[in-house]
Design a protein that fits this description.
Keywords: Oxidoreductase. It comes from Lysobacter niastensis. It is an enzyme of class 1 (oxidoreductase). Its EC number is 1.1.1.41. The chain has 335 residues and is of the alpha/beta class. The protein folds into two domains: 185 residues, 3-Layer(aba) Sandwich (Isopropylmalate Dehydrogenase); 128 residues, 3-Layer(aba) Sandwich (Isopropylmalate Dehydrogenase), CATH 3.40.718.10. 40% of the residues lie in helices and 18% in strands. The strands form two sheets. Strands 2-1-3-12-11-4-5-10-8-9 form a ten-stranded mixed beta sheet, with helices on both faces. Strands 6-7 form a two-stranded antiparallel ribbon. Helix 1 packs across helix 9 and helix 1 runs parallel beside helix 11. Bound molecules: 1,4-dihydronicotinamide adenine dinucleotide. The site of 1,4-dihydronicotinamide adenine dinucleotide (NAI) has 21 residues, from loops.
C-alpha cells in the first residue's frame, strides 16, 4: 500500500538533512510517496506567506508530515510557524526520546534511555497574550493550563509507557510556586496516574529535575510535563546523549502528526554539508512506528547504530570527517 506524506524541507540545514533522510528512506522500499510543501521563510519568499493554504491542505489530507526545522526570528518579527502548526492541527503530544548511542560525545555512553512527553498546545510557550508597554518597560504573557490539556498529555504518557513496556512516569512541575497553572497540571496528573497502577509514578519539581538529569539520568524512564519545561528539558536530554544531532521529536494529534528533529536551522553550519542527519532520520523512524511499520523503524535505528559503531562517514559534530550525505549513504548501505 502506498502512503503519501507531506515533506517540508525547511530553512538553514533543513534541505540538506531532508535530502539525506529521503535518500535513506528511498533505500528501504517503504511505499512512501512524498508531497513537497513549503513553510517558513522559503514559503514567504516563494509564495508570499509563511504558512500557505496548500501546505495546510497537504498535511490535512495526508495526516503525516516529515518536517525540517524552520527559522523563527529572536525577540522580534513573525511568530513561530512550528507553534502555529502544532496549534492548528492540535498536535498536543510532543514525544522526544533521548537514547545513548555508540561513539557519541556523551558523558553517559550507555546510561540514558528516556522519553520526554511534552504538552504541545498550551502554557507560557505558545506566547498567548504577549504585550509590551509603549515605553518598553513592562512585558506580560498569559499562561493558560487546562484540565483537558493536562489530562490528555498525561494519559498519552501512561499509554505510551504501557505500549512500549516502560515502567515509570515522572510528572515534572513547578506547583510549589506556580500554584494555579502548574498546580492544576499536577493535580490532574495525579488523578490520571491512579488509573495506571501497573506503571510506577513519581513527581519532581522542574529545577531539581534538571539537576537529577545531569547527575543520575538512569532514574528516568518517561517524563511528562508542560510545554515550556518540556522544551528546555528535552534539549538538556539531547545534551546527555551527545547533542542535538541525535534528538528526534514527534508532534502527535488525533488527526495529524508531524515528525521533526528537535534542533533548529543551525545557521552557523547551513550549506556546508556538516549537518548531522540522524535527528531527522530518528524522527523518520518514529514516523514509521506511527505508520504501523515497527520492523522498518527498528531496521532504520539499527542501521544508524551500526554506522555510529563503525564510525563510518560521521559528521563533524560526532568527531568524524564525513558530510551529511556521505553519512546518510553509509546508513543506507547498512539497510
Ligand atoms: P539550533 O538547534 O539551530 O543550533 C544550536 C547548535 O546546535 C548550533 O551550534 C548548531 O550548529 C548545532 N546543531 C543543530 N542541529 C545540528 C545538526 N543536525 N548537526 C550538527 N549540529 C547541529 O538552535 P538555534 O541556533 O537556537 O536556532 C536557530 C533557528 O532555528 C532559530 O530561528 C530557531 O527559532 C529555529 N528553531 C527551529 C526549530 C524547529 O523548526 N523545530 C527548533 C529549534 C529552533
Amino acid at each position: 500500500m502506498t502512503q503519501t506524506i507531506t515533506v517540508i524541507r525547511g530553512d538553514g540545514i533543513g534541505p540538506e538533512i531532508m535530502d539525506a533522510t529521503l535518500h535513506v528512506l528511498d533505500s528501504m522500499n517503504l511505499g512512501l510517496q512524498y508531497e513537497f510543501a513549503d513553510a517558513g521563510l522559503v514559503a514567504l519568499e516563494k509564495q508570499g506567506e509563511l504558512l500557505p493554504a496548500a501546505t495546510m491542505d497537504s498535511i490535512r489530507k495526508n495526516r503525516i508530515a516529515l518536517k525540517s526545522p524552520l527559522t523563527t526570528p529572536v525577540g522580534e518579527g513573525f511568530s513561530s510557524i512550528n507553534v502555529e502548526l502544532r496549534k492548528r492541527f492540535d498536535l498536543y503530544a510532543n514525544v522526544r526520546p533521548a537514547k545513548s548511542f555508540p561513539n557519541t560525545k556523551s558523558r553517559f555512553p550507555s546510561g540514558v534511555d528516556l522519553i520526554t512527553v511534552r504538552e504541545n498546545t498550551e502554557g507560557a510557550y505558545i506566547g498567548e497574550g504577549q504585550t509590551l508597554s509603549a515605553d518598553g518597560e513592562v512585558a506580560t504573557l498569559t499562561q493558560k493550563i487546562t484540565r483537558r490539556g493536562s489530562e490528555r498529555i498525561v494519559r498519552y504518557a501512561f499509554e505510551l509507557a504501557r505500549r512500549t513496556g516502560r515502567k515509570k512516569v515522572t510528572i515534572v512541575h513547578k506547583a510549589n510556586i506556580l500554584k494555579s497553572t502548574s498546580g492544576l497540571f499536577l493535580k490532574t496528573a495525579r488523578a490520571v496516574a491512579t488509573e495506571y497502577p501497573d506503571i510506577e509514578c513519581n513527581e519532581m519539581i522542574v529545577d531539581n529535575t534538571c539537576m537529577q538529569l545531569v547527575m543520575r539520568p538512569e532514574q528516568f524512564d518517561i517524563i511528562v510535563t508542560t510545554n515550556l519545561f518540556g522544551d528546555i528539558i528535552s534539549d538538556l536530554c539531547a545534551g546527555l546523549v551527545g547533542g542535538l544531532g541525535l534528538a528526534p521529536g514527534a508532534n502527535i494529534g488525533t488527526d495529524a502528526a508531524i515528525f521533526e528533529a528537535v534542533h533548529g536551522t543551525a545557521p552557523d553550519i547551513a550549506g556546508q554539508g556538516k549537518a548531522n542527519p540522524c535527528a531527522l532520520l530518528l524522527a523518520a523512524a518514529q514516523m514509521l512506528d506511527h505508520l504501523a511499520m515497527p520492523e522498518k523503524a527498528t531496521r532504520l535505528r539499527e542501521a544508524i547504530i551500526a554506522t555510529l559503531e563503525a564510525k563510518d562517514s560521521l559528521t563533524p559534530d560526532l568527531g568524524g570527517s564525513g558530510n551529511t550525505m556521505s553519512f546518510a549513504k553509509a546508513i543506507a548501505t547498512r539497510i
